[in-house]
């Protein structure tokens, strides 16, 4: 059975710490025991440490953190993401990991609340996705779960853009020729998962967007079945590659 390590950037009191692991396990169709959680806030996150005794790396969201924060552990995380990409070690990173890998490979991330996406959004695949072993089964339009204020404004040459939205031109990528993927959106979350997460942080979103707008956002969550299939497609791809 494929073993995964989930790199987490979650504060001790954040209930998403446990939920995130379960969400990845559900979408990958593996037992939570097959996902080893790595706490980046308190554990060394070098390439050798995070890849030891696992077959693939996962990265989730970040809760209270931005990849643009000035913290030593974030710098180490970005460096490790660059090494994962360069080595071709199987990796699937969402949101926070997406931002980190863009920075690691020479792209640009900026804080952009005006174009933030929180909720369920319609995305479009790019022509490059059609023959991709993970993204190839997606329709030209699909719904995905979002929760971000930072976004990529430029992708490095080594990355192939696979999806976009009206607000963000870069929503997913692969490293050219390698089983390394990242998404701005959260394929590990269903519409209900993301709605429950939004409800948990409703007071924060009410302060950020206003209570009326926050309630409208809460009412607009939708299922995202095609996006939720991506992690299983990733697992099958790396298992097929390892078995060939």
Quick structural overview:
The chain is an alpha/beta fold and 244 residues long. It has helices spanning 16-28, 47-51, 72-87, 96-104, 191-200, 202-209, 211-219, 225-228, 230-243; strands spanning 4-8, 35-39, 56-59, 91-94, 108-111, 117-125, 141-148, 150-154, 159-165, 172-175, 180-183.
Question: How does this structure look, described?
Answer:
α3 (72-87) crosses α4 (96-104) and α6 (202-209) crosses α7. This protein has helices spanning 16-28, 47-51, 72-87, 96-104, 191-200, 202-209, 211-219, 225-228, 230-243; strands at 4-8, 35-39, 56-59, 91-94, 108-111, 117-125, 141-148, 150-154, 159-165, 172-175, 180-183. It has 244 residues and is α/β, with parallel strands linked by helices. It is built from 9 helices and 11 strands. The mean pLDDT is 94. Strands 2-1-3-4-11-10-9-6-7 form a 9-stranded mixed beta sheet, sandwiched between helices. A two-stranded antiparallel sheet has the order 5-8. The two termini are 16 Å apart. It has one domain (4-243): Class I glutamine amidotransferase (GATase) domain (Rossmann fold), CATH 3.40.50.880. β3 (56-59), α3 and β4 (91-94) form a beta-alpha-beta unit. The longest helix is centred in the N-terminal third of the chain and has 16 residues, at 72-87.
């Amino acid at each position: 059975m494929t073993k995964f390590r989930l790199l987490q950037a979650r504060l001790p009191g954040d209930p998403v710490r446990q939920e995130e692991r379960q969400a990845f396990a559900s979408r990958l169709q593996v037992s939570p025991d097959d996902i080893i959680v790595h706490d980046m806030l308190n554990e060394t996150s070098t390439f050798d440490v995070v890849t030891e005794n696992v077959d693939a790396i996962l990265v989730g969201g970040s809760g209270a953190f931005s990849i643009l924060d000035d913290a030593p552990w974030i710098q180490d995380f970005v460096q490790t993401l660059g090494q994962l990409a360069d080595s071709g070690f199987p990796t699937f990173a969402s949101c926070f990991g997406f931002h980190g890998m863009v920075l690691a490979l020479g792209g640009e991330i900026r804080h952009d609340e005006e174009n933030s996406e929180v909720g369920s959004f319609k995305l479009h695949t790019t022509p490059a996705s059609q023959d991709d072993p993970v993204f190839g089964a997606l329709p030209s339009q699909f719904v995905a779960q979002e929760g971000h204020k930072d976004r990529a404004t430029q992708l490095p040459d080594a990355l192939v853009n696979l999806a976009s939205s009206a607000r963000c031109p870069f929503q997913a990528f692969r490293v050219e020729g390698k089983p390394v993927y990242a998404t701005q959106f959260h394929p590990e979350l269903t519409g209900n998962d993301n709605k429950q997460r939004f409800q948990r942080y409703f007071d924060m979103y009410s302060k950020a967007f206003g209570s009326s707008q926050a309630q409208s956002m809460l009412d607009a969550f939708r299922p995202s079945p095609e996006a939720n299939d991506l992690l299983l497609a990733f697992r099958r791809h790396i298992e097929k590659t390892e078995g060939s």
